[in-house]
Amino acid sequence: MRSFIEQMFKVHIKFDSMILIQPNVTLLKQGYTLDDIKKHIEICARTCYKSVGTETSYQSFIDKLISSGHLAMLEHGTVYLKRRVEHISKPTMAYRYKANPYSRVNSDEVGTKYITTNLRVIVENGWKEDLKYLSFPERWHDKRITLRIITDIGLGRELCRHKILCVA
After folding, report:
1. Model pLDDT, residue 168
2. Core vs surface per residue 50-60: b (16+ CB within 10 A) or e
3. Helices (DSSP H) in 50-111: which residue ranges?
4. Range in 39-48, 82-91, 137-146 the model is least confident about
5. Would you say 163 and 156 are in contact if contact means Cβ atoms under 8 Å apart?
6. Phi and psi for 38 in degrees, rounded to 5?
7. What is d(CA 43, CA 115) in angstroms, rounded to the nearest whole number?
């Protein structure tokens, strides 16, 4: 029989009917295409719901979230947009994102706009046409990361108090 200390450092430890899980943190990396963003959202949502998807289930899963009005999960999908100076015909795009508390807008020395936002902002405001400016993150974008945190309920509730952190 293993000692108590040996058992405490295992990921899953069973005491009668209670399972203890060792706290951990995992960095979840997201790609930069619209499909990558949707796959990332599915991973985050299924982690939250404790469900399992398939390699191709992300599109129908995201459509279901949107049609049911459950847009909170879309906040986990980081969207990087890049708007060059020559696209002056629609100058209000950067201003719309500047006014949104969940978006950040930066400029380079020639005035190109680098917008960091999330898919919920785009869907909720009807700005899907802005996705044609989708970009990989450049040095002027504010970077966002996603962490999967396995922890006790007390700390989990403390984290959920911070809406700007986008915790689910």
Report:
1. 58
2. eeeeeeeebee
3. 58-67, 92-98
4. 82-91
5. no
6. -65, -40
7. 24
